[in-house]
C-alpha cells in the first residue's frame, strides 16, 4: 500500500510559503490549450478558525505543485496564482502557467511580411525576455496586425489561424510553437491489465470519416484565396485565416486534415499518478484481450486530481504514432 504525498510551495519576492493542508488539487494540461491550469481547494476554516494567508499568497505568487507516493514526488505544475476565490465552504487558489505573465498589453504593430516565430519573439521581447521561443512550425504572414491587444490575445490569434500547438514550458521558460503531434516529451507504457483503471477508447478508421478541409485567406489586395483538400463530399471544415502565404495555406490544411482524419484509438484512459506522464508523451498502449489495438499514441492532454480519495489521471490520446 502506497502512502500519498504532496508538497505545494508558494513564493513571492519576500519569502516562500508551504501549504499544510488541502482538500483537493486539480491540474489540467494540454498542448491544444494556450494555458495549463491548477485549482487548489482548501477548507475555508479549520477548527472554526478561518484560514488567512492573504499576505503569504497573493495574485502573481509563484506556485510549485509536487505530487506522488511514499515521498517520491514529481513536479506536476509550475505557475502563478491568478485568483483566490471564496466559496460557501471552501477556498480555491486558481493558478495558471506562464501565460499568466503574458496577459498584459503589447504595442500596436503592423508586421509585414512576418511569421509565427517573429511574432512570438516580438511578444516575448516586450513582456519577458527571459523566455525563449521554440518554433518548428513557422507559418508566413504577408501582414499581421496587432491592435489594442495583450500578449495572450496575439498568441490566441496565432493559434486560431495556424492551428499550431502553442503552449508554455513554465519551468524551462520556453514558449513552444509546433505542428500538432511533433513535439516529443517522453515515453510512457500503459496496459489495460496492469495500470489502467478504466477506458473510454474507441477505435476509428479514417476511411469511415470523410473530411474536406478548406482554408480561406484574404491577401493584401483584399482578394479571397482558398485551398481545399481531403475527400470531396465529406464533412466540411472551413478555416478563415489572415494574409497567409499560399504555401502555408496548404500546410495549415494538412494539419487540420491530420487532426480530424486518422486510424487509431480515440478517447481517454483513467490511470493513477504512476506512471508519470505529460502532454507530448508517447503512450505505448496494449490490451491482452484486443492485441490488434496495440499501438503508440500521442498524449494531447492530462487531467490530474489529488485528494483524500486518491490520485487519478485522465490521459487523452491523439493520433497513432506507430
Automatic annotation (TrEMBL):
Top-rank lineage group of the source organism: Bacteria
Protein name listed in UniProt: Phage protein D
Organism field: Flavobacterium geliluteum
